[in-house]
Each structure stands twice: as structure tokens, then as C-alpha cells.
């Protein structure tokens, strides 16, 4: 039910709702759907005019639309796809190739699920990449066991947790002692050292360095940066680990299916309904106050928005405790990725890239040194004059995103610090110019076909998508902010210091990306009746 239908909610006494979900992104809608399918009366409150969260698209120039922050899918959980009854064209698709672009037009192209085969490299390098891929896929599968379940509680490990630990241990044992030692050796390594162990081709090294650090405030030589690549390789689509795809009809088709599944389950959805405050009394959350003063009550409140917005803006901090508030305030959640959308009067041509591969993912990251040098200025609040980026041409999957004959280009650009020295008001134009100059090297003539552009910095993302810090993962995906410490230890596992208040956003376990797992696992925990 969309906002036009939602006058019907006024026919209900507010107390009739069993659960209130704050936030209509894909995690909030997933949680609401599962709760409703299990007999709960659920209402979703979304501050924006439509649901979808970071998948919410918008028109950035007359006739040209952006699909939102996300432009590919690489970790939509099969359990979520089954829950939502997604059709095959939405839940999976042909794996997109990844083109590691080279300025001379001689590119390396990964095909299948994260480079099952590679074009454009010598046989010895392809063999080395296959060995590295096999190693990383196995190691990521160990971590994946813990990302698909509620994290264990320190000091209160349940039998189901012991089963997960035993399964992980058994996987290592069956691979032999050497594999177990290698897993422990590599777990907290930096991705550059791992790439150097296996590879000699700078294009492949640059690609995995980029993939390990995209959306994370680390460079490839930063300790633990390999975790970012592990996280990416825990994702699967259509049963293929490491694969990536665009749904039939484009990314803009994905958000509506989450809403459709929720409404089919009986969920009420109110858009343009901002929550001003979570009502709590003596440690128990009992309802919410909307921006218009309306009060809704329910014994379960599910917050599918950023944890800092939940606790520091919507809650009375006096109900939470000083230590907890301090911990939440210290969550590192400052984004460092910008999103560029271009309106073009014709589809661009990247030198040396085949027509079919233009439909895939194009990455500009020439080497580990390139990625590291792009990161270094971000440590000091500056951006690089030689940025690294991931490029998609969305209108090839959905021509309706542009007028006839036109095209759109979407690029995720590292590293764009939220706290830019001198501010984005003055820095935005210079950064966009550098991005366009970089694109021109790989797609000559592109600048002449630009009709309009829209650059979203982390500060813009904060405003447009209500993301504190403009961080799309709702918090850094680093070792100290994962598993039992996501978002903080006292609010891990979806429960919070307030009885009846639960978390279900990317800021909770297991983290960001279009997976639906935070929403799914939070709803399962609520239905279990455990605290």
C-alpha cells in the first residue's frame, strides 16, 4: 500500500499495530515483510516520498534519471529473494564482466563470478589469479557462516553458536593444517601484500585493491584491508559467490519489488512520514511520535535507519546511559565515496572495450600504487587529482533512464572525504573536473556529449538519503565494527538497551550492501522471542 492508500491506517487504533518499522529501505521492508507473514500487524514509516532507501532513484536532468546510490547487485541473499518471492530476472542475472581499464586500451576482463575466467592476461597470470581466487573464496566462506546468522553474545554463547564455530573449524580441518595456518595468517593482512604474493599484473592488483577498499576508509596497504575483499566475496547472487548483475529492466526495478512484497504480506506503508521521537519509559520503547505530532504505539519498534540517528536523534539519551551514548557517538561513519551521474546525448565508447562489455562494470584503478596514492590525500581531508572509480552505463539495461538516443553514466569515485578541507561548496567543482578529465582518457569525446551532470558527495548523500556522515554502510566495515561490535557491543545482535527497540539497518550485523540480511535476521530474532 502506497501513501495514497494509507488513509486506511487511520481506521486502526494505533495500538492495533504489533510492530512499527522506521525506514522504508530494503532492510526495513524485508523485516516488515517477515513479521507480517508471521501474523504481525506492521506499519512502515518512511520520511521520503517513496520507499527504497539508497536504491531510491531521482531525475537529475529533464528526461534523465539516476537509479540511486547502488548501481549493481552483488550480495542479495537467496533467503531474502525467497522471502520476497522475487522472480528469476530480479533475484539474479547473467554475471556482469568486470573490465580493469588500462589507458592504452589493453584491458583485463574478469568473466563469470569474480574472474572464473580472465581475458587479456598471459596464461601464467590467469593461473595465478585462479589460485588466489580459490584461496580467497574459501577463506571468505568461513566468515560467511557468521554473516548469515545473529552474532554470538559474548559471555552467553548458545548451542547454535557453537555449531557455527564447529562448522567453521571443520571446514579448516578438512582442508589441512596448512590451510588453517594460512587463514589465520591472512585474516588481518592488507590486500596489497596478498596481491603481491600471487600476481604480477598491475591491472589485476589495482582491481582487487579497489574492490577491497570501496566504501571503506582504508588504503590497500592499510592493515586489515583484506577484510573488505572478504566481505565482497561473501556475497552471492543466483547461487554464484562473487557474481554481480543488474536486474532485468535495470536497478530501478529492484526497490519496488521490496515494497510490493511488503504490501502483499499486509504491511501498511506511510511515506512522507518522518519520525521525530521514539517513546520510551523506564527502559522500554512503546511507540513513536511523528513529525506532525501524531503518536503511534506498538510493543516492537524496529529501526532500519542509521544507528546514530536512532539513538542520538530519536531517543532520549537519558534512557540509554552515558557509556552507551559515548560508544554510539564514536561509531566511525564518515563516507569517502562520491557518486557521479552523467546525462549524455549518446552512449559513450571506452577505447578497447567491446560493445557487450560496455554493459558490465568498468574500473579505473591502474595499480596498487594508484589506489594507495588516491587514498593518501583523504587521510588529510583532501581528494586526489588522479581518482579511482567504478563505472556502469545504466541506460544500457534500462533505456527509459534517458531520452531516445541518449544515455546515462554512473560512477562511484574514491576517495571523497566527508570532511573535505575547505568544504565541498568550493571543492565540488574541482573534484568533478578531475573525474571528467580521468573519464576522458578512457572514453575520448565523452566530455563533448555531456548534457548535464550530478555529483553527490558524502555530504550530499547525508542530506538526500538521511545518512549521517554520508556513509552508505551506516558505519565502517572494519574489524572493530563488525560481528559482536556492530554497531557497538551493547547493541549487537539487533537488541538495544531499550526493551522493545531493535535495529535492522546496514549499521547492524552483518553490514551494508543490498543483501536484506540485517532486516531478515532482525525479524527472525524478534519472532524468536529472545532478548
Commentary on this structure:
This protein is of the alpha/beta class and 531 residues long. 33% of the residues lie in helices and 17% in strands. The chain has 16 helices and 20 strands. It has an eight-stranded mixed beta sheet with strand order 7-6-5-16-17-18-15-19, with helices on both faces. Helix 4 crosses helix 9, helix 5 crosses helix 6 and helix 7 packs antiparallel against helix 8. It is globular and about 65 Å long. It starts with 18 loop residues before the first strand and ends with a helix. The N terminus is likely disordered.
Alpha-carbon Rg, integer: 23 Å
Global structural class: alpha/beta
Instruction: Count every helix, treating DSSP H or I runs of 4 or more residues as helices.
Output: 16
3D shape: globular
**How far apart are the first and last residues' alpha carbons, in Å?**
31 Å
Defining key terms:
531 residues, alpha/beta, 8-stranded mixed beta sheet, 5-stranded parallel beta sheet, 20 strands
What is this structure, in a nutshell?
The chain is an alpha/beta fold and 531 residues long. Helix content is 33%, strand content 17%. An eight-stranded mixed β-sheet has the order 7-6-5-16-17-18-15-19, sandwiched between helices. A five-stranded parallel β-sheet has the order 10-2-1-14-20, with helices on one face. The chain has a three-stranded antiparallel β-sheet with strand order 11-12-13, covered by helices on one side.
Amino acid at each position: 500500500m502506497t501513501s495514497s492508500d494509507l488513509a486506511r491506517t487511520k481506521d486502526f487504533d494505533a495500538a492495533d499495530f504489533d510492530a512499527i518499522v522506521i525506514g522504508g529501505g530494503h532492510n526495513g521492508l524485508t523485516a516488515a515483510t517477515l513479521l507480517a507473514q508471521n501474523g504481525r500487524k506492521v506499519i512502515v514509516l518512511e520520511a521520503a516520498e517513496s520507499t527504497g532507501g539508497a536504491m531510491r532513484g531521482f531525475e537529475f536532468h529533464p528526461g534523465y534519471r539516476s537509479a540511486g546510490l547502488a548501481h549493481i547487485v552483488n550480495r542479495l541473499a537467496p533467503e531474502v529473494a525467497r522471502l520476497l518471492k522475487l522472480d528469476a530476472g530480479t533475484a539474479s542475472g547473467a554475471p556482469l564482466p568486470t573490465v580493469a581499464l588500462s589507458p592504452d586500451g589493453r584491458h583485463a576482463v574478469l568473466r563469470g563470478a569474480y574472474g572464473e575466467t580472465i581475458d587479456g592476461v598471459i596464461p601464467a597470470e590467469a593461473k595465478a589469479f585462479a589460485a588466489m581466487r580459490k584461496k580467497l573464496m574459501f577463506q571468505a566462506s568461513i566468515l560467511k557462516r557468521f554473516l548469515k546468522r545473529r552474532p554470538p553474545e559474548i559471555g552467553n554463547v548458545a548451542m547454535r553458536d557453537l555449531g557455527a564455530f564447529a562448522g567453521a573449524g571443520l571446514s579448516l580441518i578438512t582442508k589441512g593444517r596448512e590451510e588453517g595456518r594460512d587463514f589465520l595468517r591472512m585474516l588481518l593482512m592488507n590486500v596489497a601484500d596478498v596481491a603481491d604474493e600471487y600476481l604480477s599484473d598491475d591491472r589485476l592488483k589495482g582491481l582487487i585493491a579497489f574492490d577491497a577498499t570501496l566504501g571503506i576508509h582504508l588504503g590497500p596497504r592499510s592493515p586489515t584491508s583484506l577484510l573488505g575483499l572478504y566481505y565482497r566475496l561473501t556475497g552471492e547472487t543466483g547461487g554464484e559467490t562473487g557474481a554481480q548483475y543488474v536486474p532485468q529492466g535495470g536497478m530501478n526495478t529492484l526497490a519496488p519489488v521490496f515494497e510490493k512484497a511488503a504490501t502483499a504480506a499486509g504491511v501498511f506503508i506511510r511515506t512522507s512520514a518522518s519520525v521525530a521521537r521514539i517513546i520510551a519509559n523506564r527502559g522500554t520503547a512503546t511507540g513513536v511520535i511523528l513529525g506532525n505530532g501524531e503518536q503511534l504505539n506498538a510493543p516492537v519498534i524496529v529501526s532500519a535507519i542509521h544507528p546514530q540517528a536512532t539513538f542520538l536523534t530519536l531517543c532520549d539519551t537519558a534512557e540509554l546511559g552515558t557509556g552507551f551514548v559515548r560508544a554510539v557517538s564514536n561509531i566511525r561513519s564518515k563516507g569517502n565515496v562520491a557518486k557521479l551521474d552523467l546525462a549524455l546525448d549518446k552512449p559513450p565508447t571506452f577505447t578497447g572495450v567491446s560493445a557487450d562489455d560496455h554493459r558490465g562494470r568498468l574500473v579505473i584503478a591502474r595499480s596498487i600504487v594508484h589506489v594507495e596514492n588516491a587514498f593518501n590525500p583523504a587521510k588529510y581531508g583532501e581528494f586526489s587529482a588522479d581518482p579511482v572509480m567504478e563505472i556502469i552505463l545504466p541506460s544500457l539495461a534500462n533505456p527509459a533512464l534517458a531520452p531516445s538516443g541518449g544515455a546515462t553514466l554512473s560512477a562511484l569515485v574514491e576517495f571523497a572525504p566527508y570532511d573535505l578541507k575547505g568544504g565541498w561548496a568550493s571543492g565540488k567543482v574541482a573534484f568533478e573536473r578531475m573525474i571528467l578529465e580521468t573519464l576522458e582518457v578512457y572514453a575520448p569525446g565523452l566530455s563533448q556529449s555531456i548534457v548535464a551532470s550530478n555529483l553527490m558527495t558524502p555530504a550530499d548523500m547525508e542530506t538526500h538519503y538521511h545518512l549521517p556522515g554520508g556513509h552508505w554502510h551506516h558505519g565502517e566495515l572494519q574489524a572493530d565494527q563488525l560481528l559482536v561490535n556492530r554497531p557497538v557491543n551493547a547493541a549487537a545482535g539487533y537488541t538495544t538497551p531499550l526493551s522493545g527497540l531493535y535495529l535492522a539497518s546496514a549499521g547492524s550485523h552483518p553490514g551494508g550492501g543490498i543483501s536484506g540480511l540485517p532486516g531478515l535476521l532482525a525479524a527472525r530474532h524478534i519472532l524468536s522471542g529472545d532478548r
